[in-house]
């Protein structure tokens, strides 16, 4: 029996039954009967009211239980059990409320769990956004440093480009110089070879000179010997002339002693004396000349000796020169080879310098772009940092909201 | 015809009359005489005779007393046996005693005789020889008496 049936039954019992009773009483009595009827109506009303009260009490007990349950639910107490068990609408309502409370409990439980998780997540988010903000600030600072570094790098790259330019020019100049040095080394080698040939020829000529000097020395020695022989002969002539002079003197003395008879003899003696004197003078002149010749011959011999020594020394020097030229030849050959290698290396270096220059130009472009990009990144990072500050602010606000939500949700007892 | 043998000793011209000279000789090997004077050079053997060798340096030119004469004039006196040393015989010139200036000359000096543009001191050879012989004798005596 449903609620409508029960209410209809209760109405019939409480209203119609007394009314019927009253009508019946009315029918039996008149006036008195009126009062009696009124009394009866009153009693009937009272009984009906009593019945109504009893029936409503019966009927509202479950509703009160439901109301209490609803109040508990309204206060967040979802632990309240609904003890109503009937087959009427109240029972249905109780069942619905039970279902609702169960569902609410699940939902609130889930909400509490979600709120707690969300709070933790928001808390983590807040911490993370704080950290991200700090990191973003650091990143911004680093990016600014990087931007400044990129700018400096760009400037340095520009300077390096200038240096590379100079290096390229220098290496090109060095390459040119080494090429001319190679030519010079070739000339030096040719000159050294010519010098070596000349030194060999000089050595040969010095040998011939030495030989001729030795031959001359031998001839001078012969000449000196002959000169000495001339001296000996002159000494003999001088001695003879001296003796002749003395003989003439003595002849003159004898002629003088002979008086007039010796006059002719005296003339002869005088002529002989004069001849002897002339011979003596000539012999003395020859002797002086011979002495001069001897002296000069000695000087020449000494000079020849010195010349010979000088020629030998010169030959030794020329041998040393030949040896030196040999070394120079070897050195110039080595130098030429080294210069050739250096020239090749310098050429490669010039090519590498040109490549380096090109690479430096590209690096400069990249560095300029990097500097500009770094500036943009720096600006973007500052914007990100500002956004992160906003997010952090929002995250803190969200955290507060989540905290409030958790507080609210925690009011539910499940 | 007389001749004057003009010699040079120590730069001085000395004249000796040819009649006083036997011959002109080169310096023979000379043997020193002990205790002799500086102008007594010694004695020498020459053509079988022992001759006294005398240098006129000490008499004529004391500055050059240590010099050695290179040519000697032998006295013509048979018993003189003296060789008088000279540096050089300059000339054998005609000798005219009338041209000689001999005012006040005595002893070993006979006078001055003109020769070329110079004056030649003519030796009085006999007194010179006598003087030298006396000196030699004196020297030898003094040397032997000391023993």
What does this structure look like?
The complex is a heterodimer of chains A (about 425) and B (about 150). Chain A is an all-alpha fold and about 425 residues long. Chain A is built from four helices and no strands. In chain A, about 25% of the residues are buried. The mean pLDDT of chain A is about 80. Chain B has about 150 residues and is an alpha+beta fold. Helices cover about 15% and strands about 45% of the residues of chain B. In chain B, strand 10 and strand 11 form a beta hairpin. The radius of gyration of chain B is 15 Å and the shape is globular.
What characteristics describe this protein?
heterodimer, A: 414 residues, mainly alpha, B: 147 residues, alpha+beta, 6-stranded mixed beta sheet, 5-stranded mixed beta sheet, 17% helix, 44% strand
Give the helices and strands, then pairings.
The complex is a heterodimer of chains A (414) and B (147).
Chain A: H1 3-28, H2 32-74, H3 89-258, H4 263-410
Chain B: E1 3-9, E2 12-17, E3 21-26, E4 30-31, E5 40-46, E6 49-55, H1 57-60, E7 71-75, E8 82-86, E9 88-94, E10 109-115, E11 118-123, H2 125-145
Parallel strand pairs in B: 2-11, 6-8
Antiparallel strand pairs in B: 1-2, 1-9, 3-7, 4-5, 5-6, 7-8, 10-11
Summary of the model, kept short:
By secondary structure, chain A is an all-alpha fold.
